Protein 1
Amino acid sequence: MTLPWSLECSACVPVRKRSADGLPGVCEACGAPYVVRYAAAPRPEAKALLEGRPWTMWRYREWLPLARGESPVTLGEGGTPLLSVARLGARTGFANLWIKEEGTNPTGSFKARGLAAAVTRAVLAGAKQFVVPTAGNAGVALAAYATRAGVPARVYAPATTPAPILAQIRVFGGDLVLLDGHIGDCGKAARAFAAESGAVDVSTLREPYRIEGKKTLGLELAEQLGWTLPDAIVYPTGGGTGLIGMWKAFQELRASGWVTAEGTLPRMYSVQATGCAPVIRAFEAGAERCTPWPDPTTVAAGLRVPGPLGDRLMLQALRESGGGATAVSDEALTAAARQMQTVEGIDAAPEGGAALAGAVELLRRGLIKPEERVVVFNTGAGWLYRA
């Protein structure tokens, strides 16, 4: 079967292309991530197909790497609430603040979207084993979706990963290996294991489909806002697939006529912790790539990514959208997560707290206006971080 999409290298000039057959990884020529390009986008009339479909990310199957007759590996991921937070907005200076609550996903975080897509495509291509390095939530998601597919998965995680997250990886049947060091060290171990065992490495951006799963964040947000888009999106950034996927979604939606955007797309803002902020440092320096952060330390485990493979794509999205980047302290992000919990009843993870604290800082600096429609992402559930 010929798949109705192909792959393009995100870095090669001229653009290197290949078919989507088999189990693609990164570009064979330069090692950069591949990006999915579809033969044709759904026309606006195809919105009618959404009527009556379940409220999961697979309601957008025409936008996703799923061929006719194929069924996804799913636990009901997506369909997360978009919550108006007027009280929190009033306290922090926003007139039109919203929170996209990803903690309600089956495995407790937004990672469910990307791993559902990656596992689906790999299993359909014949994968017999998976491996992933994780700062936490990706390992939980892979363990669950690999088990759902009936395929074993090994997970490499830093020994400092929060205990509840490690417990969830084990609960879902993951073969968990703990290492001293950070996610970069786990990534080296995962690649070595993949090379010796033949396991499919579903690390962030080392296969092309986690982006497509995360793209549904943008598709879903547009539908929840009546096929309009917000002025600004504030997103906590580790590996960056969510940021990259949403920017891809917004561009595809506008090109296909599905959204009413008067020439502008949302400004994308990345938030990291001051103890690990390679994207912020590169953005402020005007660099095209990140310099790996030497000693990543933050209580927000998902932000402890010292050298993201998707750095070029993240920086491109921030600049193309007219957005920006900021870093916040652990004290600020912890306080902001607590504020989301006590003011609005949203059980925010530290990364969600970082996004809110970052939004407040961007507002203070005048980069976001008080009256603008702003969406802050809480990417995971706070209970995953509490012993």
Protein 2
Amino acid sequence: MIIIETERLLLRTWEDKDIEPYFQINQDPKVIEFLTGPLTMKEVTDFISFVNKQFDEIGYSVWAAEEKSSGKLIGYIGLDPIKWNPPFGKAVEIEWRLGSEYWHKGYATEGAKACLDFAFNKCGLKEIVSFAVPANIRSIRVMEKIGMQRDINGDFAHPKLPADHKLSKHVLYRMNREEFNKLCTK
């Protein structure tokens, strides 16, 4: 089911045909550079099942991102309630993970902007966060391009990783509904 359509993307619920391409995306060393490792096929199928169920239950999720022109799965873009207890409080995160061949084309920015609109104007969410390892400049640039602001006081060590792990430190970005609406009126 198509949830969001942009000029070049369809953000939709996941289908069985997405399993293999999403598995391949998560084997690419460039894609998993800031993750703890590649996903197994079971992790991929469990993820797809979970996010589709999450959409059915709460009305948003991380959706399969399909390139309109080719019909190919390019990764995911969407909204995900944080399931652990972050130091900055319970929140909904905007996320993206695209195959490296789709980087530098503006897809993450295009899809993320549409997800913000969906979050604030369809779901009535009050705030969205995003975070990344400081070295993940590509994701940080997307956060900035979509209008999110860095919360320097919110930077944190990820509680799911040892404090001395190279991926533990994260920078936090935020955006609330009022900030989004101001950007839309410019």
Protein 3
Amino acid sequence: MSETLLEEEVAFAGADAQGRVLVLACGAIAREVLAVISRGGWAHVDVRCLPAKLHSTPDRIPAAVDLKLTELAGRYERVFVAYADCGTGGALDPVLERHGVERLPGAHCYGFLAGNDAWDAMQEDEPATFYLTDFLARHFDALVVRSLKLDSHPELKPLMFGNYRRLVYLAQTDDVDLDRRAEAAAAFLGLAYERRRTGYGELVPSLTRFARGVHA
């Protein structure tokens, strides 16, 4: 599932959308969104995920969301967009206003997964922090090492990461393999390592309100 979500849109939807609601999500939090929906037992909620690679090109997120919301208009009773601002510089919100839909709170996935107040406190404590989520720990090699060509040009590491002091792994789950990957990522970048168990953070109340039809 994860490799596909990096490159292409994926739907987790029922055959008949009548009477159903939809979460349009970033592919980078597909597992988390599906886990929260499954835990809530919300059989009426469908999920569509835009490609996770948009995570690396945030300027393209508003247009991709706009296109998909336009395509799906009238097919669902309500739609919720499971993105924060995610580096769009405020460009996503006018799109959502036009379509009359809400999104996740805050500026990025680190914030809503950790809890925006908790992330603000972490960042104030040490601004020179590189963050990983479960998704980024799982795909660190593809999204960081190979994407930035650090495997073939290790001399770039101090140029790109020399101002960081620590790597904080914001763990959504207790997964020994992901813990190992995150710790290895910190060692690869030469950063102090810290793990913080966040769970699903503000995804839970946000999706709960949407599934129950309560506006924020």
Protein 4
Amino acid sequence: MKRHKHDSERHHSEGHHSETKAVRGAANLDKKNGPFATPIYQTSTFEVTDNDEQVRATHSDHFYTRYGNPTNTVAEKTIAELEGVDAALTFASGMGAVTTTLMALLKSGDHVVAQRDIYGGVNKFLSQWLPKMGIETTFVDTTKYEQHARAIRPNTKLLYIESPTNPTLRVVDFKKVVDMARQHNLLTMIDATFGTPINQHPAEYGIDLVMHSGTKYLSGHSDLICGAVCGRHELMEKIWETRTTLGNCMDPHASWALVRGLKTLAVRVARQNENARRVAEFLLEHAKVRSVNYPFLKNHPQYDVARAQMSGGGGMVSFEVEGTGEDARRVSEAMRLFTLAPSLGSVESLVSIPVLTSHAMIPAEERAKMGVTEQMIRLSVGIENAEDLIADLERALEAVGARESVGVAG
């Protein structure tokens, strides 16, 4: 990207592991005098010495914060390092990242093939907003790749995937998707929020664009809203030009908080991987649980794919209670350590009912096709003690059928 002349230099973190890149990925490791912590450039504009310099600054992060900002650059470079790509851009939200990217790369008459079971807000944008711009989307089952292939048309431009999926935790075979896209000369874009740059690296398989709702794991503390997209220079330049027009850039103070959160990403995700695995194994054996979704459970339908392309199963678990939607609500409300709230990826454990939150905007018949039921509960497992979390779940599951039982006894 012209805006970040230093992006192409591939910094001193080249060759380092993800844990190191998360902490030092955007840092200049040369000996120097200056601030150690990332400064907050809380400014809307930047002064110049003359008009020639003003022209040169236009494509830099020292022109106007809608175009770029040095604090934002640190966050973006760190994310690019973590994903192993040329460049990254941050946005005011995850949805801002998705919508800006799609509008940058698609035009009227284009066609998209997308998974059916993706985040509800993206499903709504693809199915209700893009048609207003003359762009059509065909939705297909996530792991039925023959459906993907049949859906491709002469005017198809992009394959949109999500892995692991929200909230069903299905895992996409990156190799199959990339092979299909290359055969038809299509772009590929993934929502990798659940996977994190610690557990998976889609770009290594050839995925063109990797998107994160940075609100979640990248930040990790439920205290900011942001999105990120990263990929090749030529694609990122188009997205940058669109972002400057739409104006949904990230605030420098939020970027500073994101940089601070990224430094602990690897250690947080490692703990969340372990806690979520233990929670999933507990739920799998519980009499009041109908089914459990977690990529690293051996009964997961894509277990082999998950183990091949992921280093950890992630911090998300979803399960269905044996009972009704009302039972699921009671269980979620009975939890104490799992806080009833939307979103995910925080150090604190959260619980939500997808049909009431992330997928509330999706019609019931479409949710059924996705496998999102009224009995489903989604857990975002934090970094608390795993035994305490399991004890909280065990107490909460006593609420299944409790009202009916009281009625019968009465």
